[in-house]
Write a structure and sequence with these properties.
The chain is mainly α. The protein is built from 14 helices and two strands, in the order αααααααααβαβαααα. α2 packs across α7 and α9 crosses α13. The termini are far apart.
Length: about 375
């Protein structure tokens, strides 16, 4: 009887302990450092020169994605990087100038942040940040943008268990630092790839261009020829060439005369008068969804952009010779030529990137 009693008592005690354990809920798993490499898929684009001191991992890219969509980076917790770089708008801002947390507009149009891995000539319109990691933190402290201090951001993130855990997974330490934030944001932006447009499918032999798009493609790639206007092209590829449709240069594209310069552009960084009113040449991928256009967002439509190059070039001391050569005669584009050229530009829209879940908010 005593043995039976002891067995029953032991079983009862065990059941009670199990029941109590269930009431307390499952034991939370501790975060574990994970350096699994992130595999960057870039298709037919050339192999990018990724930073050797910031090799992509799945957890660092995820941390960067979290930070990119995190409103705690701003003074009043209302804005994130993604607020002015909208995925549905090619990671740009449909507003001419982004409005910061203080209700103040910026001075330049927000640039797109896709295919950053193929930009090798610094960042921002004037190239003031040599590395993408340097660019990543500047909007946080800009009084016209997030208007927050990095110290406050670190405090806010450090108070979040979710972020402390993710820093452990990414860096094997829950300590939040400026450097780790910058490197993670760099990694996420490097992971944003646009290479699945209709034009990419055309190059792969998977889809045909319409007659108008094909005429536009030929115009885009054909050089300007003042001696034979009937065979002259739009000469776009000089500045927007290669698979990423840019040239990693800073150029003055004839928007204003010297007397009308209001933004000195690259000169503010180099202190070289030869760089006056020169700006980074952007990629034309997704150009149909990244209006408004130019560094100051002065053009709302692609039609206005084409008209500028066809008949609106203005002379100045630093205008690029390639653009200046077309100023007197224009590009000889007919109304149909303009339609065809714009139809081709629409084939550069990457709807896959616009809807890619891996770039969306993780929250």
């Amino acid at each position: 009887m005593n043995l039976r009693y002891l067995l029953l008592f032991s079983l009862f005690t065990t059941l009670m302990l199990v029941a109590c354990g269930d009431d307390e809920g499952p034991v939370a798993e501790l975060p574990v450092y994970d350096d699994t490499p992130y595999v960057l898929s870039y298709g037919s684009l050339p192999e990018p020169q990724l930073p050797t001191d910031n090799q992509l991992t799945e957890q660092k890219v995820l941390l960067g994605r979290m930070l990119f969509h995190e409103t705690m980076l701003s003074k009043d917790d209302s804005q994130a990087c993604a607020s002015c770089h909208l995925q549905t708008d090619g990671f740009s801002d449909p507003n001419r100038f982004s409005v910061g947390v203080e209700g103040l507009p910026g001075h330049r149009q927000a640039m797109s942040v896709f295919n950053m891995a193929w930009h090798t000539n610094a960042f921002f319109w004037d190239g003031r940040s040599t590395l993408l990691r340097d660019q990543a933190l500047k909007p946080i402290e800009d009084p016209l943008e997030m208007n927050e201090t990095l110290e406050n951001v670190i405090t806010k993130l450090s108070d979040s268990k979710m972020y402390r855990d993710q820093f452990v997974r990414a860096y094997d330490s829950e300590e939040v630092t400026e450097e780790k934030m910058a490197l993670a944001l760099e990694q996420f932006m490097l992971s944003i790839v646009s290479n699945q447009s209709k034009y990419d499918r055309y190059l792969a032999g998977e889809e045909a261009l319409t007659e108008s798009e094909e005429r536009g493609r030929i115009l885009f790639q054909t050089e300007y020829n003042p001696f034979f206007p009937e065979s002259s092209g739009a000469d776009c590829a000089h500045c927007h060439g290669g698979k990423n449709f840019e040239n990693d240069q800073y150029m003055n594209n004839g928007l204003d005369t010297d007397a009308d310069f209001t933004d000195l552009g690259r000169e503010m960084v180099t202190q070289n008068a030869a760089d006056r009113a020169k700006f980074k040449v952007p990629s034309l991928r997704n150009v149909a969804i990244t209006a408004p256009y130019m560094h100051d967002g002065r053009f709302q439509t692609l039609e206005q952009v084409v008209d500028h190059y066809n008949e609106g070039i203005r002379n100045s001391s630093t205008v690029d010779p390639t653009v200046e050569n077309t100023r007197e005669s224009g590009l000889f584009l007919t109304p149909q030529d303009k339609i065809d050229l714009i139809n081709f530009l629409h084939t550069l829209t990457d709807e896959v990137m616009m809807n890619e879940p891996a770039y969306q908010s993780p929250f």
